[in-house]
Amino acid sequence: MRVHDITLTRDFSSDDLKCISMKAGRYLSEIILLKPDAVIDVKSLLGMMLYPLKKGFVITIRTKGKDEEEALDFMCEIMDSR
């Protein structure tokens, strides 16, 4: 299992969340976002839409599985770069 904390540098739109969820489906590993008030399965589009990701939020990214390192790298890059 890999875990990384990150502070969001921007707001994520519903289109961003949809794209992230779809791209996360490429990975075999479980990808979870932990917020103080929620546990979000990144591969679940509904889960992603229910909990907005806003600038300044501190989230924990947790990956677990065969390609957990690649999945964590993907999530860190996408959460930081946009």
UniProtKB/TrEMBL annotation:
PROSITE patterns: PTS_HPR_DOM. Coiled coil: none annotated. Residues 1-82 form the HPr domain. InterPro entries: HPr-like (IPR000032), HPr-like_sf (IPR035895). It holds the Pfam family PTS-HPr. This is HPr domain-containing protein. It comes from Paenibacillus durus ATCC 35681. The lineage of its organism: Bacteria, Bacillati, Bacillota, Bacilli, Bacillales.
